[in-house]
TrEMBL record:
Keywords assigned: Heme, Iron, Metal-binding, Oxidoreductase, Peroxidase, Signal
GO MF term list: cytochrome-c peroxidase activity; electron transfer activity; heme binding; metal ion binding
Annotated SUPFAM superfamilies: Cytochrome c (SSF46626)
Entry protein name: Cytochrome-c peroxidase
InterPro entries found in the cross-reference section: Cyt_c-like_dom, Cyt_c-like_dom_sf, Cytochrome_c_Peroxidase/MauG, Di-haem_cyt_c_peroxidsae, Imelysin_sf
Length: 594
């Protein structure tokens, strides 16, 4: 055979092998489809066991297997198909569409979990099979969706980083495993899949991939060694494992040249990790782009905030009820109206109010601009008129330069007054508490008792399943685009024999699920914003913790049938309750520390 023939025989198989290797290299999309097929297979096996009326242990084991398989897909399902995710693994509560006055019953893993744990009641067999078939149907929908879409690297990277934040804020808190307490092994499954995702990005950064894989393997090993939900050290896990993983993912993204995905959410895409300074965007919930925050607007808003001219009789300003030294609350159970009677509700704090999608206890206004005009025009609060206020401002020479700087105008408009006031409120977020210092690497910022309190807050006490880290309000992570309400069964007075007669959101949306529903308030600076609850019924944090420890209103025997707060007792010891209060005091901004 001639040399050329030898060369051809060598080159052709080599080219064929190279092309085949490239052609058959698995993609992220293929992996998602494969994992979805495995999930469908697990659910089918689960259905078969339920139809045969298998025992509790077998059904629970199959539940765990299916849920762990879902956790491999969670990063993608939550990001690309959030509507399906809600019915795959959302809370076991009705989904409400308030605009259309519609409700949808819950489905998915959390509903099934409540049927199976701690023990399965055979009388619920038919319901279990039905719920599993619904779950199967959503699994098939997920596969069809992923089969049809294109998944780009920037979205994959964004979804992966958000998954780490989801683990910090939801997974390790028990948010989606409230009965079975499987949060730690589920966290392990979620983390273990991240190297698979990163590898498929094919970024050509093997050393950085190895670094990430090493960090994640250590985090998974930590979970595997510490599976007990109540004893899990979340403070250590976040600071030692999850924060470094978050930072390394961010560095990987930059090194790979993968652009940030710009979305309208409170968490900035360019934040290196969840607890970074300036990680949150105060413009997330503005009405439109002309309302964006500027220091000049905030300075003008500060002048307006302390000006009595905003009230009808020039005798009350915003600061009358929102006192700066009390984190912009007033220290009263409820304030006094202009007519001399007590207002119905407690004055909420304005610090961090910009990071809520919904204002007032009943969430009746969507943004701070509408909140300001609501208060100004309220007959009981300021009884002002925007038209009259505007004329006063135009006639006041002190404001001329401020409006020119803030809005480039000599002729102020009413919306600009509202925007300036709202901008001042948007400037009231410090994120410089001892808690923040600790999460940024200063291990000496918190005492052992405070760290224990943090672990209780994010674990056994279940506080963080409603007051989400790190804002500690009801704006739901990791997207931070929606603020939740809760029904906790607040009593009318300290005696606790009657339920509060304030119906909250129900006043504006006549849906039975909303009776007694109120916005989940922020807990930053909570140590100086007493008294607490929408009616100011509790004077101390100790009283608040005791109320939750009893299971809220329903746990105390009050008729709060639609309570969204779990009504089972938390069984916190006196020492644990003390530690919990100690932790909440670490959320105080430096300017309020004594």
């Amino acid at each position: 055979m001639k040399p050329l023939q030898y060369l051809i025989l060598f080159i052709i198989p080599t080219l064929f092998f190279s092309c085949s290797e490239k052609e058959y290299k698995r993609t992220i999309k293929q992996d998602i489809l494969t994992e979805t097929d495995l999930l469908e297979k697990d659910i089918n096996t689960f259905i078969a066991a339920a139809e045969k009326n298998a025992g509790t242990r077998q059904l629970q084991a199959q539940y765990k297997k299916s849920k762990l398989q879902y956790k491999k897909l969670e990063w993608a399902v939550e990001y690309f198909i959030p509507a399906s995710a809600r019915f795959m693994n959302g809370p076991a509560l009705d989904e409400l569409e308030l605009e259309e006055n519609r409700e949808f019953p819950p489905h998915g893993f959390q509903v099934i979990e409540e049927l199976l744990f701690p023990e399965f009641d055979n009388s619920n067999q038919e319901e279990l099979v039905r719920e599993l078939k619904v779950l199967l149907n959503y699994s098939r929908q997920i596969r069809k969706h992923f089969d049809a879409i294109t998944i780009s690297p920037d979205y994959v990277m964004d979804a992966t980083r958000l998954q780490v934040y989801r683990i910090i804020t939801l997974s390790i808190t028990g948010f989606d495993s409230p009965v079975a307490f499987l949060s730690i092994p589920e966290t392990s499954a979620s983390l273990a899949y991240i190297p698979v995702i990163i590898e498929q990005l094919d970024a050509g950064l093997p050393e950085r991939e190895d670094e990430l894989r090493g960090l994640i393997n250590n985090a998974v090993a930590y979970c595997d060694r510490n599976r007990d939900f109540n004893r899990f050290n979340r403070a250590e896990f976040i600071t030692t494992h999850l924060n470094p993983i978050s930072k390394k993912l961010y560095e990987f993204q930059k090194a790979a040249g993968i652009r940030n995905v710009v979305r309208n959410r409170a968490l900035k895409a360019d934040a290196a990790y969840l607890f970074a300074e300036n990680a949150f965007d105060v413009d997330a919930f503005i009405p439109s782009q002309e309302y964006k925050f500027t220091p000049e607007k905030a300075e003008l808003g500060k002048m307006l905030f302390y000006d009595n001219a905003l009230s009808k009789d020039n005798n009350r300003s915003c600061a009358t009820c929102h006192k700066p030294d009390k984190a912009f609350t007033d220290g009263l159970k409820t304030n006094i109206s202009l007519t001399g009677i007590n207002l119905r509700r407690n004055t909420p704090a304005l610090t961090y109010a910009s990071l809520q999608h919904g204002q007032f206890w009943d969430l009746r206004q969507p943004d701070l601009e509408k909140q300001t005009v609501d208060v100004i025009q309220n007959r009981e609060e300021m009884h002002g008129s925007m038209d009259v206020i505007l004329n006063k401002i135009i006639a006041d020479s002190r404001y001329k330069e401020g409006f020119k700087k803030a809005f480039k105008t000599d002729k102020p408009e009413a919306w600009q007054v509202q925007n300036a006031l709202a901008s001042y409120v948007r400037s009231l977020n410090s994120f410089d508490s001892r808690f923040d210092d600790y999460m940024r690497g200063n291990s000496n910022s918190l005492t052992a008792e405070e760290i224990e309190g943090m672990n209780l807050f994010m674990g056994k006490a279940k506080c963080a399943t409603c007051h989400f880290t790190p804002i500690f309000n009801g704006t739901v992570p990791p997207n931070f685009v929606k603020t939740e309400h809760e029904v906790i069964g607040t009593p009318k007075d300290k005696a606790g024999r009657q339920l509060s007669d304030d119906n909250g959101r129900y006043i504006f949306n006549k849906m039975p699920q909303l009776k007694g529903a109120f916005k989940t308030p922020g807990l930053r600076n909570v140590a100086i914003t007493a008294p607490y609850m929408h009616n100011g019924v509790f004077d101390t944090l100790e009283e608040v913790v005791d109320f939750y420890n009893k299971g809220g209103g329903l746990g105390m025997g009050l008729p709060a049938e639609n309570q969204t707060l779990p009504f089972d007792k938390l069984s916190l010891t006196d020492k644990e309750m003390k530690a919990l209060v100690a932790f909440m005091k670490t959320l105080t901004d430096k300017q309020y520390e004594k």
